[in-house]
Amino acid sequence: MMRVLLSIVLILVAPMVAAQDRVRMAVTTSFQNSGLADVLVPHIAKDTGLDVQLLVVGTGQALRLGQAGDVDAVLVHARAAEDAFVAAGYGTHRREVMYNDFVLIGPSDDPAKSGEAQTAVEAFTAVAGAGARFVSRGDDSGTHQKERGIWQAGDFDPLDFDSWYLSVGAGMGAALNTAVGLGAYILSDRASWLNFGNKGDLSLLLAGDPILFNQYTFIPVNPALHDHVNATGTAELEAWLTSSRAAELIDGFQIGGEAPFTFNAAPRP
What we know:
This protein starts with a helix and ends in a 6-residue tail after the last strand. The chain has two domains: 2-99 and 214-263, Periplasmic binding protein-like II (D-Maltodextrin-Binding Protein, domain 2); 100-212, D-Maltodextrin-Binding Protein, domain 2 (3-Layer(aba) Sandwich), CATH 3.40.190. Helix 7 links the parallel strand 5 (134-136) and strand 6. It is globular, with a radius of gyration of 21 Å. By secondary structure, the chain is an alpha/beta fold. The chain is built from eleven helices and ten strands.
């Protein structure tokens, strides 16, 4: 009888322990496409015992998953949307982890002469003026939100554009493949571009404008709204992502000899 009771207890407890060790995190496609996730996740498991399960989506969808309580945390890169998410109580706080930058990619012969521009707004204006093919992710991702912001800063509305502007509603890799196939311009994060194998005749044309800064931020989902959220595991994951070990791995990560990410997590106040 005692063995039977012990077996029942073990069956009931084992899933609970496993759930405590599992953290579901929605992450951007750019983070996944860069290859950095493949480096960090095994080290997180080794150092903490956490089983971090990634849901790879655009920032907009990641925040919607967090709002619904379908994940425990999000790692995203769209400041205005992040602030709104936390202000509405869906996330407990923002914690900056690392940054890179966005870059304008386009045909090597650059028919719009966008590479001669001094700023991203000027480069986008040149593309629009030339009516050159431009591929937009069109998926409410952080990259898409940044692209829209640049158009708006130039007093453009993509809804007014003609057929030269193609919104594909896809992740970074698929959007880059479309741009290669069409010989089109596209906004990409630097890491995804560096790690992209099918560059075709496209080249990096513009970088360095402060507007292209790209901050990645960790936000825990609010357990007060969703009591099934793994708050303990999420706190442990946050501590690791902002630790000296994470800094070493993030700063040391390279693609083709270039380090595309810079760790910038600050201590908790």
